[in-house]
Write a structure and sequence with these properties.
Strand content: 25-35%
Structural class: alpha+beta
Radius of gyration: 22 Å
Strand order of the largest sheet: 1-2-3-4-5-6-13-7-12
Number of helices: 9
Number of strands: 13
Shape: elongated
Distance between the termini: 23 Å
Helix content: 25-40%
Length: about 350
């Protein structure tokens, strides 16, 4: 990535909306280094507490962290993130605008910030990394929150992004009872990459998950999508692979599904869960989720995080039956690969 303080832009403002400070000399630039983290933190978001460690581990770089300044006043910020040091940006996961700005000016500043930073960080002609945002569950019902988020979403749309999915963020908390096993299934640890990928492949076919559907729509086969998911995510977990469980029928040993309890860079999580198509319709998802939850609860974890698409009603209902509560929502926007619609 090629970006430095030489990418700074200074744009004289032309807005004079009542309630603003008049014309602005807007400076848009990346952080000069980790020592400017306090500047970035003048706006707030629920992931602020992760930034220092992200910088220390290389999952986030100062040249990926951009600010829009009017003098010493921070009016906007954004940042990309990578799952591991040395990788290219994988996600645009910070994009905040000052709440006190009028909507029209907020939208204008957001668009300038996004376009300027993207031009410097993301190589021309390549697909922009996906945008992801965590939000209060009632974000549509709180006028101030809705207005702020819609300014961000408007800037995304103006650059060609489209909404992919809204998701429920779920949490199991210590002390919540774990349902007793029903005895219908037996469980064994996943043996290796091929063992899991071979089970993930048929689950991808007919999936209700929007990201899985997008992978298939991009031209990947179900097998290729499963391999990509494994290699980009599961392969980097530091938690014991023995936690990963395959569910099978006691009588025959035939696989029914699987669950991947794990710890990512930040939380313990039910990273993936699936029932093979031939065994759907029997309620096995509850048994498999119970086992994944039991594995993590036995490790005395402080909480278990999970997520499912808002439209995946059966999965959301299973999490509720297992004692998970919705504490937030998330939304994702994507940009198509240049020249390819719906990629």
């Amino acid at each position: 990535m090629t970006t430095s303080s030489s990418s700074t832009t200074s744009t004289p403002g032309t807005t004079g909306t009542p309630g603003t400070t008049g014309a602005r000399d807007l400076v848009i630039r990346p952080l000069a280094g980790p020592e400017e983290l306090d500047l970035f933190l003048r706006l707030t978001y629920s992931l602020d507490h992760e930034l220092a460690d992200d910088l220390a581990t290389g999952r986030r770089l100062p040249e990926w962290m951009w600010v829009a300044l009017d003098g010493d006043r921070l009016l906007g910020r954004l940042s990309w993130w990578a799952g591991a040091a040395g990788g290219a940006p994988q996600a645009l996961d910070f994009f905040d605008l000052a709440t006190e700005l009028p909507e029209e000016e907020r939208a204008e500043i957001g668009l300038r910030l996004l376009e300027t930073a993207t031009a410097a960080v993301i190589p021309a002609g390549t697909q922009r990394p996906e945008f992801g945002r965590f939000m209060p569950a009632d974000w549509r019902e709180v006028p101030e929150t809705r207005s702020l988020l819609e300014s961000v979403f408007g800037a995304l749309l103006a650059t060609g992004a489209r909404p992919l999915v809204e998701r429920l963020r779920l949490e199991w908390r210590p002390g919540t009872p774990v349902p007793e096993p029903k005895g219908r299934l037996e469980f064994r640890p996943v043996r290796d990459r091929e063992d899991l990928v071979a089970l993930m492949t048929p689950v991808m076919e007919g999936t209700l998950d929007a990201h899985g559907q997008a992978d298939l729509a991009s031209g990947l086969s179900a097998r290729e999508a499963a391999e990509l998911h494994y290699d980009e995510e599961f392969a980097h977990y530091s938690s014991p692979q023995e936690w990963w469980q395959v569910a099978q029928l006691p009588e025959t040993g035939e696989p029914v599904g699987f669950v991947v309890p794990a710890r990512n860079n930040y939380h313990h999580t039910i990273a993936y869960i699936g029932v093979l198509p031939a065994h759907r319709g029997h309620g096995y998802i509850d048994d498999i989720l119970t086992e994944g939850t039991r594995v993590l609860a036995a490790a005395d974890v402080p909480r278990i995080r999970a997520a499912t698409d808002l439209g995946n009603v059966p999965m959301a209902a299973s999490f509720a039956r297992a004692g998970y509560v919705t504490f937030e929502r998330a939304i994702n926007y994507v940009w198509d690969t240049p020249g390819v619609t719906g990629s």
